Amino acid sequence: MRSKWIVIAGAVLAGAVLTGCGNGSGAPSSGGRGPAIPEPRPGLSGGSAGQRPEVGPEQAGRIATDRFGGQVINVEPDHARGAPSWEVEVRDSSQGRIEVDVSRGTGEIVELERDSGD
């Protein structure tokens, strides 16, 4: 009886080893020519597969001025709608002097506030 369990355990182990021989993507193996090169994934820029790179302060300023025009006065870390963002202060925009919150994760404009102290 004991040898029967050893044979079953060996077969399970061999199956696990053979399953791990692919490239992990579910795609066919590269045929022994080295590791398969993963397809690039869409994102903002760079970053590792499966992760979106964080939007930086300069990019947040460009996002705000591309949308509303004007000149960036200041960019500082903030939180909007419960998520990290950049508060971009812009003067001479199409909306006057404004503060735009740009999501650090997605680059979306999540809040816009007109500054009354122009």
Automatic annotation (TrEMBL):
Pfam families: PepSY
This protein's UniProt keywords: Signal
Region (Disordered): 20-64
Signal peptide (UniProt feature, chain positions): 1-19
Bias (Gly residues): 21-34
Domain of life, per lineage: Bacteria
Residue ranges annotated for the PepSY domain, each copy included: 56-111
PROSITE patterns linked: PROKAR_LIPOPROTEIN
InterPro entries in UniProt: PepSY
Protein's name according to its UniProt entry: PepSY domain-containing protein
Annotated organism of origin: Saccharopolyspora rosea
